Known about the structure:
It holds the Pfam family ABC_tran. It comes from Marinospirillum alkalitolerans. The protein is built from ten helices and ten strands. It is α/β, with parallel strands linked by helices. The strands form two sheets. The protein has a six-stranded mixed sheet, sandwiched between helices. The protein has a four-stranded antiparallel sheet with strand order 2-1-4-5. The longest helix has 14 residues. It starts with a helix and ends in a 9-residue tail after the last helix.
Amino acid sequence: MDHQQQVRQRATLAATENLLSIEQMQPEGVIASALQGQLAAQGMSFVLGPQASWRRLYLLSLAGIAPLAAGRVLYQGRDLTQWEATAQEELRQQLVCVMQPMALLSVRNARDNLLLPALYHGQPERLARARMEQALAEIQFAGDLTQLPAFLSPLERVQLALVRARLLQPKIFLIEDPWLGLDWPDCASIEAALRLWSQDSYLLISGQALDFAAQHAEAFFYVSAEHQAIYGSWSALLASDSVSVRQYCHAYRSGHPPAQRE
């Protein structure tokens, strides 16, 4: 099945199975337009924009972590702020955030870093180990699992953080800039895993990897101090009449990554 067929299939699924519904969402502490939209059971969306702080704010808002000034975010029909305390542990396994910096336990080896969260949440050890081996293969991890994180490469540490979250079997997987600090050739293994994982989870990713976003994402949250909107396709983003979006896309088309501003 080619990418366009996958997009159409997921659009059909979105009409009947919206895992995450965004209703007039407006983060607290900023002057911004309210956002409205839905995320389906599988697929990938990107949070784009020139300011890292805005991308982070919207990712945390969609995760139900950052407070909202208005609107709400619903997961499986329930407001994220209304989940009972006893259900929060289950929620945070189904809706998982991996934020920068991707912290690991410095005094435990790589294998422990992967397995301990899954075991804490009650996964049988044999199942957790099987899932670990599968996810490590999917992300092409080539490091030494007996080493402490300090002795692993930047790529291997990012791979561990992503696999650790993957072992929780999230339905919504929110990831802040997994490319940050990596050399470009090292990104291929990350991107291959993200494409694969988007087939059974919904990935919501922030970052500046616009080539990857243009090829594989179905929707785009553009957020900046000047403009906030959801675009249903890459072509719709490119056709935006927003000056902020046009400048951002022009920098991309010119071969210069959009400037990072805080």
